[in-house]
Amino acid sequence: MVVYETVSDETDRIFHALADATRRDIVMRVVQREQSVSTLAASYAMSFAAVQKHVAVLERAHLVVKERRGREQLVHGNPETMRKATLLLQHYEELWRYRAQRMRDILSRDVSPKKEGEDS
């Protein structure tokens, strides 16, 4: 189904972007306070271009929004996308909790040993 593929593609971009420690750190910084790409670049032991590439990955995943104000490119977090990721993770957690409960239920059933001469 096309809608599912679109959602899946979006999810893949989000979690790919969050798979990198530098990008997670960038998200944390810009969620707390909007920052310019130059300010962000000064925080890392890498080139401006490398930080700009990280921001571009985050922007494609819609985790951050970059806007130009005069000569600066300001980056701020996009809480709506973070909510989507949180809801997806909560959904997975619910599935696993349900499966764990089902296993506990199965394992806790009264299984009494058969007495000699009893049929199943």
Tell me about this structure:
With about 120 residues, the protein is mainly α. The chain has a domain at about 5-80: Winged helix-like DNA-binding domain superfamily/Winged helix DNA-binding domain (Arc Repressor Mutant, subunit A, Orthogonal Bundle). It contains five helices and three strands. It has helices at about 1-20, 20-30, 35-40, 50-60, 80-110; strands at about 35, 65-70, 70-75. Strands 1-3-2 form a three-stranded antiparallel sheet. A hairpin with a 2-residue loop joins strand 2 (about 65-70) and strand 3 (about 70-75). Helix 1 packs antiparallel against helix 4 (about 50-60) and helix 2 (about 20-30) packs across helix 4. It is rod-shaped and about 90 Å long.
